[in-house]
Design goal:
Blueprint: H1 2-10, H2 14-18, H3 22-25, H4 37-61, H5 71-92, H6 102-128, H7 135-144
Helix pairs in contact: 1-6, 5-6
Length: 145
Amino acid sequence: MLAACGKVSEGSAAGPLNGPSQWLWGEQEAYRRRFTVRNTVVGYAIHQFAATMWAGLHEVAFARERRSTSVGGHLAAAAATTAVSSVVDYHLTPRRLRPGFKKHLGQRVSSSRGRRLWPRRVAIAATKGGRRPKRSEAVKFRLAR
């Protein structure tokens, strides 16, 4: 998603992925638009680490919600995680440890598009797989065997 938005908005797929590399190399490195191992690979790794961390926190915080079959419940839980991550990433975190996408995508794209889509992805994933069957479904399955 980041690479696609970067390619469309500034002609550089690597640029937005370089943003998080400011964690290690300083803010000036986040502005680089070309692919480099130092910036792009490190930035991508940092981005995946952060995404996995937020996904893990979401799973822990909303473990009970996973049992719900309601798409609305999954959307609400994902929207709550998204809101918290946005406040933490862009308001509570020191500037150097922020995602750095805005340097390439701007405020509107980096903050809204990805964060609006994430709750939908979580809700779809939760309802498609990983849900526990209802008791009535389990009973029907056992009886049919």
